[in-house]
Amino acid sequence: MIVTHLSLRDFRNYAEAELELHGGTNLFIGRNGQGKTNLVESLVFLSTLSSHRVSGDQAMVRAGCEAAIVRTTFTHGDRELLAEVQINRSGTNRAQINRSAIRPRDLPWYVRTVLFAPEDLALVRGEPSGRRRFIDQLSMILAPRFSAVLADYERVLKQRNTLLKSLRGGLSAAQEQTLTIWDEKLISLGTEIIARRAVLVEQIRDPLRRAYAAVVDDDHEPTIDLSLSIDGYDVDADDTADRAANSAVPDSARIEAGFRAAMERRRRAERERGLTLVGPHRDDLLFGLNRLPVKGYASHGESWSFVLALKLATAELLRRDSDLGDPVLILDDVFAELDRQRRRRLAEAVTGFEQVLITAAVREDIPEELRAAPIFIRAGRVVDEDAVDV
């Protein structure tokens, strides 16, 4: 998959922008705050319906405007695809493929990108919610219907929590019956989510090991496992070193049985706290290097290398799954954080992808083989090289 044209209107600091892109490396150069990241953010939003910088959509609409439009032309072989999303300040967003309306949540099926940015360091250092979001977003890209399962689970979870809060003062027969109904729905949907995550974790293990070796040129035994609340993991305890990790792929029957047993064990605590204490919303991913958790033990450089390898492994999975070719690989202000050796090895690792988009404030941070035909950005405009100080 190759982006050949990117068109923006009222997106971030761009009133209008029209960019012609090509296969191979595309380098965006400009000082901080000029709009380099805004360009790649627009593509990330088109493919994931989310931003790696903000949680809401409104910040992506230019000040004083009611809507932003991102329009791209993709090619793969002889096939051409026009994808568009309209981000509305109020109301629902709209999407089109080849001028025909589609549901925005279906865009990831047509447009695929993999982003690596400084914010991604939170994957190993941040809260479990970020790691759950990572694995679920990958699931939705590979199987768009999974978004409906997640939405249904969140709805049931909210309803069950509301009921649990009301049970603190006692439990009627009708409430007991209602709780049982919500229990069964939660178990059914939660089992599907856990099973899907387990399959993805298994699929990404080998690509992760290969990618880490490519970036670091050493075997630090990178691992990724699931920590399941139905197996006793407590997200509130943050017991990083001693948590229970599941390295096998559990079948749905075992997950369902474990889910039901865990809910029975925690039933009293749930009623006391008015909160659902087991399920995929309380699970985590455990990242490891050298048989120790990355979080709390890995150095800054090791953490960067692990997350970079995780993103390259993700790109490998998407490449393997798609009939549209490689996902567009996006490296946003990454090279400035790496030493010379890691820069060189990263350059070698990404040259095999059909298209790579790179942003940088300093051109010298980028290995020479990736500097061809740079695009210079200043104050939300594409400008000539002599108009920027890089």
UniProtKB/TrEMBL annotation:
<comment type="similarity">
    <text>Belongs to the RecF family.</text>
</comment>
<dbReference type="GO" id="GO:0005737">
    <property type="term" value="C:cytoplasm"/>
</dbReference>
<keyword id="KW-0238">DNA-binding</keyword>
<dbReference type="GO" id="GO:0006260">
    <property type="term" value="P:DNA replication"/>
</dbReference>
<dbReference type="InterPro" id="IPR042174">
    <property type="entry name" value="RecF_2"/>
</dbReference>
<comment type="function">
    <text>The RecF protein is involved in DNA metabolism; it is required for DNA replication and normal SOS inducibility. RecF binds preferentially to single-stranded, linear DNA. It also seems to bind ATP.</text>
</comment>
<dbReference type="GO" id="GO:0005524">
    <property type="term" value="F:ATP binding"/>
</dbReference>
<feature type="domain" description="RecF/RecN/SMC N-terminal">
    <location>
        <begin position="3"/>
        <end position="362"/>
    </location>
</feature>
<keyword id="KW-0547">Nucleotide-binding</keyword>
<keyword id="KW-0963">Cytoplasm</keyword>
<keyword id="KW-0235">DNA replication</keyword>
<keyword id="KW-0742">SOS response</keyword>
<feature type="binding site">
    <location>
        <begin position="30"/>
        <end position="37"/>
    </location>
    <ligand>
        <name>ATP</name>
    </ligand>
</feature>
<keyword id="KW-0067">ATP-binding</keyword>
<dbReference type="InterPro" id="IPR001238">
    <property type="entry name" value="DNA-binding_RecF"/>
</dbReference>
<dbReference type="GO" id="GO:0003697">
    <property type="term" value="F:single-stranded DNA binding"/>
</dbReference>
<dbReference type="GO" id="GO:0006302">
    <property type="term" value="P:double-strand break repair"/>
</dbReference>
<keyword id="KW-0227">DNA damage</keyword>
<dbReference type="GO" id="GO:0009432">
    <property type="term" value="P:SOS response"/>
</dbReference>
<dbReference type="GO" id="GO:0000731">
    <property type="term" value="P:DNA synthesis involved in DNA repair"/>
</dbReference>
<protein>
    <recommendedName>
        <fullName>DNA replication and repair protein RecF</fullName>
    </recommendedName>
</protein>
<keyword id="KW-0234">DNA repair</keyword>
<dbReference type="InterPro" id="IPR003395">
    <property type="entry name" value="RecF/RecN/SMC_N"/>
</dbReference>
<dbReference type="InterPro" id="IPR027417">
    <property type="entry name" value="P-loop_NTPase"/>
</dbReference>
<dbReference type="Pfam" id="PF02463">
    <property type="entry name" value="SMC_N"/>
</dbReference>
<dbReference type="InterPro" id="IPR018078">
    <property type="entry name" value="DNA-binding_RecF_CS"/>
</dbReference>
